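Exercise: predict the fold of this chain.
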Amino acid sequence: MRQELPEIVRADEWAPLVIRTDYTDDDAWREVVAALERAVEGEREWEAAVHLVEDRRWDGITGDEALAAAARDEELSVVFLADEVTMRSPVRPLLALDLGADDDEDLDPVYYEELIDSPPPREVRVAPDAVHMVHANLQLANVDFPEFVEDAAADPDGVVRDVTAASASPGPVPRPGP
């Protein structure tokens, strides 16, 4: 890690943690924040609380660096990054990183060997309107991270979407540049 990242102190374990790691497009960031904070309408109407980290010390950090820093919070199961792909894509998909993938202390040795040979996926792209759904399901252990990866694989843009939000895909998700 290039530097010691600031500690993240969350007040609410039910608020998804979103860290801005790309500072190239403030308008795109404002769109992401607005989508994350938008109350969900209809039967699921509730205030959409989110813990945003907007600190330039996080600029350009890698997924591994974010995982290492976020792992200090033992209650956190997933962290979302607003990275280069988030800022460039019209879908604004955040990068979800699974913190639960390292929970291997009580594993059967045979199963542990399988994990070494074929580790579970640790990341997936998530549309802003699905962040709360993904976070809540992982916090409650209703859904495993690989299930969200499967959902994204079935999406034309490779993104997890909230199936209750009737939003059409505004376009393909660009891949990060060199």
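Check your answer against the key: Residues 166-172 have pLDDT under 50 and may be disordered.
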